[in-house]
Design a protein that fits this description.
Blueprint lengths: L38 E5 L32 H13 L4 E5 L9 H9 L10 E6 L4 H11 L3 E5 L5 H8 L5 H14 L4 E7 L8 H8 L4 E7 L17 H11 L2 E4 L9 E5 L5 E5 L12 E4 L4 E3 L8 E2 L1 H5 L4 H13 L5 H6 L13 H4 L2
Parallel strand pairs: 1-2, 1-10, 2-3, 3-4, 4-5, 5-6, 6-9
Antiparallel strand pairs: 7-8, 8-9, 10-11, 11-12
Helix pairs in contact: 1-2, 2-3, 3-5
The protein binds iron/sulfur cluster.
Length: 368
């Protein structure tokens, strides 16, 4: 019986310090490596109805796992206030994540509150959501009507047996595909499909997935298996480099590289030479993209993380609940971002000396 891993729900988060004289936001905030704050990923729940082996393995996230009580979660009003302040600092894209965000009751109400937020540039906020698709068929229309722009759906295999093994809750591929169709019919888009590739687990699904989504309204992206959190037993030998994924697909379905849509886009884009659309690869392990990383993460209980692989968060909720002013919170966020030097993926393989020691926060806690 493997040793039981006890996860600390990140009790080590210091209070976010408020600068003595916070300066007013300018709509452009750069970190210590010159990267602008542009994206905010908001986790709205630490719960999920899947137990994906590379994210929330069952032996850790079992029936005794201590999930956050509802009173600890940020309310929709608190989340919207935080979003409004981040938008003042230049955030133009908000991604709702989890756990599984569609498990949070009345999520469309939050979507409507965020949709109503103006941006300094006057451009509409880019409002998106990452989901495992299990509840999408039921929720797609309401989310679209509330103002959601698009969705990213995780699907790690087309073969039902492989998929059921990977989500570890016996959930069927057909139900996720049904959710995708419902999202498309509701007018959400572009819709992306993310597949995490793990050697010896689902690598035989690379070509079937590519064939299935080629020529469809959905953009398939392959994600390199990552050492997120402290519970998935990650090992480099289980990583299939994106270059190998592209080579395997290209051998049957010729591809050509395409320029990024914008600076900071995590996926490298490739198009089918026969006009069958595009496919992407997200290569955090073998082709790090930290130099353009413009993302801050907010956990479901109000902690800020400057990197997916952080070992420590910063407690913002206390400032919210102690009724600190907008100016104070804007100053605290600016100070945190200006001091940011994270580039974990670049350091991971090259020089691990600069890497923070200690347990990395779980992806299911702050969203991918
Ligand atoms: S490893 Fe951290 S800094 Fe690098 S791209 Fe990912 S979140 Fe950004």
């Amino acid at each position: 019986m493997p040793e039981k891993i006890i996860l600390l729900n990140d009790l080590r988060s210091p209070l976010l310090p408020v600068p003595a004289a916070p300066d007013a936001p300018t709509g452009l905030l750069s970190d210590a490596l010159g990267r602008p704050l542009h994206d905010l990923r908001i986790s709205v729940t630490d719960r999920c109805n899947f137990r994906c082996v590379y994210c929330m393995p069952k032996e850790v996230f079992d029936k005794d796992y201590a999930y956050l009580p509802h009173s600890e979660l940020l309310s929709f009003e608190e989340i919207t206030r935080v979003a409004r302040l981040f938008i003042a600092h230049g955030v133009e894209k908000i991604r709702l994540t989890g756990g599984e965000p569609l498990l949070r009751k009345n999520l469309e109400r939050l979507v409507g509150m965020l949709r109503a937020l103006p941006t300094p540039s006057g451009r509409p906020l880019d409002l998106t959501l990452t989901t495992n698709g299990s509840l999408l068929a039921r929720k797609a229309r309401a989310l679209k009507d509330a103002g959601l722009d698009r969705v990213t759906v995780s699907l790690d295999a087309l073969d039902d047996a492989v998929f059921r093994r990977m989500n570890d809750v016996d959930f069927a591929v057909a139900d996720v595909l049904h959710g995708l169709d419902a999202a498309h019919e509701a007018g959400l888009g572009p819709i992306k499909v993310n597949m995490v590739v793990k050697r010896g687990t689902n690598e035989d699904q690379i070509l079937p997935m590519a064939r299935h989504f080629k020529g469809s309204p959905f953009i398939l992206r392959f994600i390199e298996y990552m050492d997120v959190g402290a519970s998935n037993g990650w090992n480099m030998v289980d990583v299939i480099p994106s270059a190998e994924v592209i080579r395997r697909i290209g051998a049957e379905l010729p591809l050509a590289p395409v320029a990024a849509n914008y600076t900071g886009e995590t996926a490298a884009r490739w198009r089918y030479l026969d006009g069958g659309g595009e496919v992407g690869v997200i290569s955090s392990v073998t082709q790090a993209f930290c130099q353009d990383c413009t993302r801050m993460r907010l956990s479901t209980e109000g902690k800020l993380y400057t990197c997916l692989f952080a070992t420590q968060g910063h407690d913002l909720r206390t400032l919210l609940r102690k009724e600190r002013s907008d100016a104070e919170i804007l100053g605290a966020v600016a100070q945190l971002w200006r001091g940011r030097t994270d580039r974990y993926s670049e350091q991971r393989t090259v020089d691990t000396s600069g890497l923070a020691r200690g347990k990395k926060v779980e992806m299911s806690y702050i969203g991918g």
